[in-house]
Amino acid sequence: MDNSLTEICRSVSQLHTDEIELFFREILSEKEIEDVQLRWELMKKLKKGESQRNIAKDLHISLCKITRGVKILKQPNGVINRILSKEQAE
Length: 90
Description:
Layout: H1 4-13, H2 17-27, H3 30-48, H4 52-59, H5 63-73, H6 79-89
Helix pairs in contact: 3-5, 3-6
């Protein structure tokens, strides 16, 4: 089971964008998809510089979840940080 995540990543990396969405819809429950989407929205809002309190109010989430996102974005070489930096530049 240790190699399962690596296996999934390799498999997904070979798919087209529309297939990746189908993959997630097949393997994740609706609630899990909503959770991933919420986490992504949180990360985008943090990257844009929105205040934690406004994010908590807007997304109806705890400051605890937001704190985790802040820690992730403090990693200068983090993947999410790079992705969101590219999106902001476009």
